[in-house]
Amino acid sequence: MTSRAVTWLRMMQPAGFYSTPSYAQRLAEVAREEGVDPREFGIRVMFFSGEPGGSIPGIRDSIAETFGARVVDCGTMAEVTPWMHGAGSADTDGMLLWQDIVYTEVCDPESFRRVPYGSQGTPVYTTLERTSQPMIRLFSGDLTHWVMEDNPCGRTYPRLPQGIYGRIDDMFQIRGENVYPSEIAAVLTELAGYGGEHRIVVSREGVMDELAVQVEADTATESAGAPAMERFSETAAAALNRVLGLRVAIEVVSPGTFERTDFKAKRVIDDRDLYRTLNRRAGSGTDG
């Protein structure tokens, strides 16, 4: 499907493009495999939704540079369509909340009370114009933080400066620290030598949770040999430690190790559930 998209994009030269950020990254990878520079598509504006990335600088800037296009982050829920009521503009990054279409509050996910501007919470949506199946304070389960400040484009809406950067159920804790998969993706995307895919492995050693990242090197780094692979590993570990405040074990693997997908990327493997199951069985003295 992606190879066919490369053919059609070269032929049709669309001005706009809409997908998830991870699909755009996959599209660029396939295009290069076929000897096509993604800039040849002539895309001027790329709209993204469906997963974090469009407002995360490392991912947003990498895609913009790859395609030579302006990246606009968008967001909503299927239950409040047909309006994509949160989006950036030509001059403003992040996502502006069009409050006169769908009234959005950012709320504490436990109390459902609105949090002050500058705080993190989950978006809660109320449709104002839809008369068929209206939604009143619909809980999204996403994670973001919002601000109310002057916007470069002049609009006076609240804004999500980093867009939607995760789901409540995507976040995991390592030794008391909250970790979001999108943070890890943003760090790796900015590293020279990154091969475009990775896996996050959460496990347990004794009583301590451990975080490991298996990351593909690009072809040039692998071709440069073991010293280059080791340098890339050290660079990735240091960058993730700086952002996350955690020790991260890095395993560098060859390009193409991980399966690519045309759909939303799933990169987290949590082995702690297996550990807990085995521990319970050992404690009860049963095998099943």
TrEMBL record:
Its EC number is 6.2.1.30. It holds the Pfam family AMP-binding_C_2. Keywords: Ligase. Residues 176-272 form the AMP-dependent ligase C-terminal domain. InterPro entries: AMP-bd_C_sf, AMP-dep_Lig_C, ANL_N_sf. Gene3D superfamilies: 3.30.300.30, N-terminal domain of ligase-like (3.40.50.12780). It is an enzyme of class 6 (ligase). One of its GO terms (molecular function) is phenylacetate-CoA ligase activity. This is Phenylacetate-coenzyme A ligase.
